[in-house]
Design the sequence.
């Protein structure tokens, strides 16, 4: 499948802005740990958080 160049006009937010937002505030610790100093769309943040939360845990008792 060919990836097309599509302009993404979605607003971008800093890690701090996402962590302080009502939508992502409950995942503040995950955002702080996963995200760098760049800017992220809400969709990118949601995907990263969901991937982290759905990650399988290795090992076990």
Sequence:
């Amino acid at each position: 499948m060919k990836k097309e160049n599509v302009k993404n006009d979605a607003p971008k937010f800093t890690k701090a802005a996402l962590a302080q937002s009502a939508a992502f505030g409950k995942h503040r610790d995950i955002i702080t740990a996963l995200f760098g100093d760049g800017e992220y769309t809400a969709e990118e943040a949601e995907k990263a958080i969901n991937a982290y939360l759905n990650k399988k845990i290795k090992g076990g008792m």
